[in-house]
Design goal:
The chain has 1011 residues and is mostly beta strands. The protein contains 10 helices and 56 strands.
Length: 1011
Amino acid sequence: MKKSLLVILLFILGSTFNLFAQGTVVTGVVTSGEDGSTMPGVNVVVKGTTVGTTTDLNGSYSIKVPEGNNVLEFSFLGYKTLDVNIDGKTKIDVFLQPDNLKLDEVVVTALGISKEKKSLAYSTQQVKSDEITAVKDANPINALNGKVAGMQINRSASGTGGSVRITLRGNKSTRNNQPLYVIDGVPMLNYSPNQPGSIWGGTNANGSPGVDGGDAISNLNPDDIESISVLKGATAAALYGSQAANGVIMITTKKGKEGRTSINFSSNFTVENPLKMPELQYRYGQDAAGGEFSWGPKLSPEAPDHVKDFYNTGSTWMNSLSFSGGNKKAQTYVSYANTTSKGIVPENTFDRHNFDLKETASFFDGRVNLTANVSLLHQNSHNRPVTGLYWNPLTGLYLFPRGMNFNDYKEHFEVFDPTRYLMAQNWFTNSDKQQNPYWIIYRNPMDSKRDRAFAMASLDVKLYKGLKLILRGNIDKSWDTYELKANATTQATLSNTNGRYILQHTNGGQTYGEMLLNYELHKEKLYFSANAGGSIRDEKIYGEYFDPYPGNLRVANVFSVQNFWQPGNVIRQSLRRRQLHSIYASAQFGWNSMFYVDVTGRNDWSSTLPDQSYFYPSIGFSWVASELINADWLNFLKLRASYAMVGNDVDPYVANMPRFYLTSSGVETNTLGVIPGTKLKPEQSKSWEVGLDMRTFEGRLNLDLTYYNSNTINQFIKISAPHGSGFKQYLVNAGKIQNSGIEAMIEVVPVETKKVRWSASLNLTKNVNKVKELHESLSDGVYYITPRDVNNYAMAITEGGSFGDIYGQRFLRKDGKIVVDSTGAPMAEPGGLGYVGNPNPDFMLGFNNVVTYGNFVFRVLIDGRFGGEVMDITQAMADRFGVSENSAQARDNGGVDIDAVYPDGSPFTQPIDPKTFYTTVGGRDGITEYYVYDATNIRLREFSVGYNFKFKSNIVDNMRLSFVSRNLFFFLLKAPYDPDIAMSTGTGLQGVDAFSIPSTRSFGLNLSIKF
């Protein structure tokens, strides 16, 4: 009996073990249907059971499916949950498609606080890392072009690593229109040591080069960026106060992740060539021996095209290597990147090294969290391209008389001067507007160097349930050096007889500290969050400038400050310091995930406005109306409205300017000051916006629509001071500038299957800018931002006009017809310059497409700017010198036909002699109205095709090889140059080109490997 019981027991146990042993092991890889990359951290569950696992860093999984179960469920935040029938298979690879509804999307807002996007009362837009790095640019901000509604980006005409100019919702200020940049919750010091100041070029001294000193935001490694959030409106940026009067760009960088170490390597190589060059002629020659102009007879054969041969094929190589890993308590991210570029202009090189280390750690069961980050940069630029008429190799290149042998001056750009026993410039003429291009390149070299160190730390302490304390701060230091070494015999307007040596040091630094209390409460239908804190921001910019000009060097071609000949040199030190103290608070109330109210308040004390403080409030409402609407096609509908007031302080020292100051020449009197008995006040912007967010048809058609209106008062401008005041100009607060407009973002998913997905987004921006008021003492209601100087271009704001109006010399007209003199030469309108256009577009469109098909990923970005006008001084100079294709065609056609009359009103019927016409209207000081063009353009901004290689390997997780390209061609271009290019990224010199290098098209390969 006992034996029988033992047999039965063994049978039962054996059956039980056999039952547990039964089941199927299923393996596979989970891939994103959005970009074809593998997905770590995906939840894989046997549906209806508690059996589950997650994918590893390779996106791979392995799960044992108990017998009798036939469905695997795959889920990941931001993606649609997918059920897959096993049907006896042991290997199942799946594609997860993005959740088009994005109802739970979390975005980074002011002060680095993450919030659900559906709760926000204002418009914001987030761009993720794959959109930034898919088609890389050395300056990651350029990768935002065409992707963000309400954002206009103009890049400096200075090649790789150049600075950018961003405006969000239009120009608001006479002083500064750039947004605040915030990295991981901490504001950064973004400044440029130099920017061109006039059509001639430089700003520091007479005849200095128009060089772009670069900005800090261009120093970032694109591969270190996790996401960029754009806070466009005043309500979104109100918590940053006077720092963020023009909006905020929030940059979140990558950090280490829990799990085994992940290694990412990326290599991006592209070649560049000119996209749009001036149209020049080579069939009409020099008009007189030794002359500068090409109004001579027709050549046979035609002169060779020396301009095309001047430009090189440029190249840019960006390599990046990063390590990420850690456990639950500590994670590490470390990266190194190198960018090396050779420009299209000979001898232009750029080299940058980035190093980044970020540590995140958790202590005391997650109650204390620490983040620390160190970033280092070393950057060199040789012969960075300049803009303007001085020190520019393009002036001599373009204007060189046709029929002369350019190669003689190329191969022998210098000749030995036996009287001075040195090599002297070899050029056919002595003109300040042009030198031998190769003399400039080899004997006027310019070198820029930047070193930068950024250290940030953040401590997050959970004090009580829902209550935490955040402490964070940073130290940001940069050291810039700029040198120009001009050899003796450089043109005399630009350099004295023994040469010229410009040495400039600029050291910038910022220290920032912040304390913030954060509280969150979730209780049934009620949601409440509150923040209160304060910060101190201290920034210093110290400069040294050494220049012998208009004096001389003691010994020719010895480039050192000790070689300066006294007197006459310029030796200058400068210090700009600004400190901002702030306290702020915000609160958000939510009810039933339907109604939300946001309120914020901030008070600033700025050292640039002594004895003053100013308060900036905001309030916003949002209502998720779809909670009350029962419609199958409508998944989400939110209505929102907000109002805010923000400001903008003034530059250091202008509110309390010293009456006297020291220079290298002695004590000088300050001629600029504040009206006695008055105080300068901060600019103030009052703005409101309304909008809606809508998701329909399961997220296949989505709309984000915003209307905004802002009015900025207390503009900072200069007016003439009365005689006897001791000043030439007064600084006053005056003026009112209004911006209003529409932003729309439409997202569509026309195709979505298991392996094919096409997502498209269309963004539209329309901004209307109006100068409502200016100071009553201004002559004709015009305030010049870029003065006329001796050229016929100026940028101004005009009462009743728009910000950035272009002023030029206009034609004299009678009954709408151009008036010509007895020789047929057009006559200029008397009385100075007049309005001729405005560079700001009427509206902008961006059309972004991403198509995935299996392992292939296609990206196409088309964007366009419609309306606005620009002035081309390059074309004007080419016309005057007779080297433009326009001037040749006019000669081919026997003259220039225009609808003209004589001064008495009688008709002028014959064609105008081309030389008479173009030497009258052309040039920097001609009738520049003729050189104003429609800035409308549509281009293929980005195009790429990538393929994701899958490996059955424990070493390589994923590899993608892509063909990448940027600015391949224009579908439509009405101006003679690319209107995206800016002479300066400052406030002035907008909408004008003066011998800027052509914008480039680039194409090449990008390889990214994940180990």
